[in-house]
Write a structure and sequence with these properties.
The structure is a homodimer. By secondary structure, chain A is α/β, with parallel strands linked by helices. Chain A has helices at about 15-25, 35-50, 65-75, 90-100, 115-125, 150-155, 205-210, 225-230, 240-260, 260-280, 305-320, 345-360, 370-380, and strands at about 5, 55-60, 80-85, 105-110, 130-135, 140, 145, 160-165, 185-190, 200-205, 295-300, 320, 325, 335.
Amino acid sequence: MPQKRYLFTPGPTPVPPQVLTALGEPVLHHRGPDFRTVFERVLARLREVHRTSSDVLLFTCSGTGAFESAIVNLCSPGDRVLAVSAGHFGERWIAMARAYGCAVEELRYTWGETPSPDDLARKLEEIEPVALVLIVHSETSTGDVADVQALARIVKRAGALAVVDAVSSLGAVPLEMDEWELDVVVSGSQKALMAPPGLATVAVSPAALEHSARASLPRYYLDWERTRKAQAKFDSPFTPAVSLVVALDVALGLLLEDGLECAFERHIRLGRACRAGLKAMGLELFSPDEDRSAVVTAARMPEGFEATQLTRVLRDRHGITIASGQGELKDQIFRIGHIGWFDEFDIATALSAVELALGELGAPVERGLAATRALEVYTEGAPV
Amino acid sequence: MPQKRYLFTPGPTPVPPQVLTALGEPVLHHRGPDFRTVFERVLARLREVHRTSSDVLLFTCSGTGAFESAIVNLCSPGDRVLAVSAGHFGERWIAMARAYGCAVEELRYTWGETPSPDDLARKLEEIEPVALVLIVHSETSTGDVADVQALARIVKRAGALAVVDAVSSLGAVPLEMDEWELDVVVSGSQKALMAPPGLATVAVSPAALEHSARASLPRYYLDWERTRKAQAKFDSPFTPAVSLVVALDVALGLLLEDGLECAFERHIRLGRACRAGLKAMGLELFSPDEDRSAVVTAARMPEGFEATQLTRVLRDRHGITIASGQGELKDQIFRIGHIGWFDEFDIATALSAVELALGELGAPVERGLAATRALEVYTEGAPV
């Protein structure tokens, strides 16, 4: 019998059985009324998840493709763009904007640091004007969740557009597109939205849409206006991944049935439980020991041990997938994702497995406390 | 009980139950060995289907996105490109290349005509030099299948690169990438490859890859070199639609189990059967009454009746989806796709339904002959 598999990475995330079942339904024609009904509902649900009345454009691509749509729809060659970077994904958006000929200014932090609104205000004063500011909400590579509301306020004051990478945060931690006046919010199907990878979303404010009409970078597949026009009739300009859309519809239904607040609260408690367990094991946290770090928990490896050793033992011996670090942090930290369809027993399993594998590697680790501590903390009661 | 549904469009096409079952399996992590094994096999199978030893790059996007990758990886602004167009998709590639600032020359035919190698030779002489020639193999909007081998020979003689849209043809009719010296072949998961939409492929010859190093159009998500490098390690630069890749693996396995020749022969017989049935009904064919028209069969509507009436009655009353025309042919023709997972009884059903619905609309149509005639023709024996 094949070994059981456990997916505790920061994405793709586990997909509920109801969603998998929907995924396996016969393929619908993308221009027929059966699909149109689903598509209309998905688009409405996506607006609800974004807390926006703006259009949420749906693309068949990864989150990176959707983020690229923000660059090509908002920029002209040579446009000045400020990127706030404190990890792998911040770096990716810098590289991407440069690939498109933008003049990229950087507000750069050591990986794992939390971007500060004051730093952003100073930077913007120093370099004004810029057309857009790229912000990462949840930096999946470090576990840090930025205060997008405060950062966006500074961006708006400087008259720029706030473009937010919410790929791993949307549906896990609060994001209020309209209330926080975010201009572009990019997300993906495979994180807190609990669907398989392959779909990505771009919520576009009226100001961003207006701005895009003047942006001269060439685009076709990722063109916002073409997609917006089609979606106004609950249609897509190109054949979408219909099976994934049907699955996403079911997943969004599950998410919204309980309400977003319920998901936010659960993620806070999952984060608390995970951090408590890791500390009980005697490990040092890398991600902030704070409730806002509710998406991915990262811990430092014990001195003399490498994260890729740990992930390999977990995977090859125990069927459990967690993530090592990315880039310069590759072997220094490991990451447990608790995004989307996770409960306290998943956390207990992940922690028990890490404890077991570290023991097997001969790393110094406190045994027998982590899972119990995590479950205690989880059930201690709702966070305020 | 919900009405049964029948999908007889030129894409998405019906997906075999084995493939749907694979689609609903728990999501794999895209960087783990479980997925890598599948991915390696999919890439090998795709090379087999393309009859090439070159790399087949896999993108999470629609066929249009993959075709766009050919433009952005092969062109610099102002590059001269010749597009051969005889239908909706030919027009799309012209519009796309223009959107990217290419100087597009056109070899344009009335929709439904078959591009001629002689015309192409003359056109190329007239306008030489061009960097690339865009060719549509199966023009899904008209049912015409071009002689790509002969066209590519002319392109090569002119020292240009042959870029082939094989979205609806690959796996249905012969395509020999290496033998015919095609430089770029673009296809999609949702046609003869019998998987759901959401994945698209770009097979790239060494010459095209070399050319792409000098092309200056900006690209990131669709960048060939980034994708090629990752695929060399059976990895993807960005999170791919893992569920669709797992499904595509099963579908390609089914296709190659019997062998491509078997699929080609079946498509020829399906085309023969469909044409024979439509003629038995007294309808006039729009697509060529020839074996090469083995992908989509198009027929003219009886005088005074509109194709959208027919498709609506079929869909709303009978649960059957066929396609009307596209663009200027919208109401003049209807199209029955027989791509991928189709057999003779599907053709009989499609024909019987068309016959019934035309009768209901009051159109003059011969009753009781089409399905029988189609089954007779299908079983008459293997084509040479």
